[in-house]
């Protein structure tokens, strides 16, 4: 329930009362004696869905822009009269005015925003380096990215250029700050005792997850955008939604920073494509859902203008997402190809262990060095095969060539094969 209070200027009292009666809204009039500029305060308890049509009706009736319209959330309303109002205004979304106010509140002060984002990025970077998913998720709790991501879209839909500019600026500045923080931390830690000698960031599973993304990663961003709009427009809890949005943006941004610190351009390219796709997808989803939810500018004359701007922004976002998704699609294909080669090799090695042609030789392990980037670089997979050889057993002539031929036949690609024979004895 909402309590709408209108501070009525001299001469507008009947206008407000007539509007309330026309809409069937209960009201109470309080005489205002504190200043001569206002003659009364009209209080009207209404459902959340009634706030926007009530405010629009008041403005259309000629209520002066200088009048105060204060909307407060009522924790509890005890009255049977409210049932009729809820039946009349049954929509579940909040008003345009509340939407804009909440979007402004979700985008914190610039200093607070960047302090929280730097702290979050630092924690996420540590989580990536130590391969701790719990640490990464914990860092997202303090990342204030939900507000700017939604504020920009709200500003577009309600025709608030200042809110749009601030939302876009905070998003871009926030991602730059996250990347710079991770790059600085990576540069300071590289080569220290806090990391093992020869530490390679591309071997860390949590980092590898961000540099070998597939197209399914886009669904995280799309789902986060949908959840963000629903939490904002329906006035439900937004903490977990904010975490989801932060998870889609901060870890890949921190991965970009680590790629810069370690001098891996392929890490920067793939993680950078992921973070951009996620950011653009969240904004695209928010724009479309806010418009479909019925939010429009306050001035009806501006609706066509805003709709034109909305279509242009959506078109640009869709084109950008498709182009960046091509990068993710390429990574998806390369990841599949490298995984398929490794799977075929391991399966064939098991088959070869049971093949009588190799006697008692047992193929115990195959280490495959074939990264997704090698697929496009044209680098042949390198395979090291560990073979257990019992006492007295002699490997066939041209054994390594036979192994390579068998593996190439199942993978369909040229391989570089190294066979390591290990003499073994087993106790009786």
UniProtKB/TrEMBL annotation:
Pfam family for this entry, one: DUF389
Cited InterPro entries: DUF389
Signal peptide: none
Keyword Transmembrane: yes
Top-rank taxon: Archaea
Transmembrane parts of this sequence: 106-130, 136-158, 170-189, 215-232, 239-262, 268-293, 314-336
Keywords: Membrane, Transmembrane, Transmembrane helix
Record protein name field: TIGR00341 family protein
Species for this entry: Halohasta litchfieldiae
């Amino acid at each position: 329930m909402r309590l709408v209070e209108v501070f009525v200027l001299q001469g507008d009292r009947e206008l407000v009362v007539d509007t309330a009666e026309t809409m069937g809204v209960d009201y109470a009039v309080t005489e205002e004696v504190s200043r001569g500029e206002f003659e009364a305060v009209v209080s009207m308890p209404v459902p959340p869905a009634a706030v926007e049509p009530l405010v629009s009706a008041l403005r259309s009736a000629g209520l002066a822009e200088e009048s105060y319209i204060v909307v407060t959330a009522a924790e509890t309303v005890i009255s049977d009269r409210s049932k009729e109002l809820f039946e009349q205004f049954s929509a579940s979304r909040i008003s345009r005015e509340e939407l804009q106010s909440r979007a402004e509140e979700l985008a914190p002060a610039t200093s607070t925003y960047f302090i929280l984002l730097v702290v979050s990025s630092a924690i996420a970077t540590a989580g990536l380096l130590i391969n701790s998913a719990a640490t990464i998720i914990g860092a997202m709790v303090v990342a204030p990215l939900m507000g700017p991501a939604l504020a920009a879209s709200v500003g577009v839909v309600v025709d608030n250029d200042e809110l749009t500019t601030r939302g876009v600026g905070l998003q871009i500045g926030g991602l730059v700050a996250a990347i710079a923080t991770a790059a600085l931390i990576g540069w300071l830690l590289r080569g220290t005792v806090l990391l093992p000698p020869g530490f390679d960031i591309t071997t860390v599973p949590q980092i590898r997850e961000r540099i070998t993304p597939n197209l399914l990663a886009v669904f995280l961003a799309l789902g986060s955008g949908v959840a963000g709009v629903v939490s904002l427009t329906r006035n439900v809890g937004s903490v977990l939604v904010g975490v989801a949005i932060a998870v889609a943006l901060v870890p890949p941004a921190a991965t970009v920073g680590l790629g810069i610190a370690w001098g891996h351009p392929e890490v920067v390219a793939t993680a950078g494509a992921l973070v951009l796709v996620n950011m653009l997808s969240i904004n695209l989803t928010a724009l479309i859902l806010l418009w479909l939810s019925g939010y429009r500018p306050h001035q009806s004359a501006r609706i066509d203008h805003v709709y034109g701007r909305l279509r242009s922004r959506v078109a640009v976002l869709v084109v950008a997402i498709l182009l960046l998704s091509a990068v993710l699609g390429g990574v998806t294909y390369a990841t599949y190809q490298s995984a398929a080669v490794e799977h075929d090799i391991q399966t064939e090695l098991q088959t070869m262990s049971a093949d009588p042609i190799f006697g008692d030789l047992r193929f115990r392990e195959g280490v495959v060095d074939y990264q997704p980037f090698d697929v496009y670089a044209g680098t042949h997979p390198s395979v090291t095969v560990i073979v257990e050889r019992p006492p007295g057993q002699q490997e066939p002539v041209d054994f390594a060539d036979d192994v390579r031929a068998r593996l190439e036949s199942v993978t369909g690609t040229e391989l570089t094969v190294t066979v390591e024979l290990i003499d073994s004895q087993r106790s009786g």
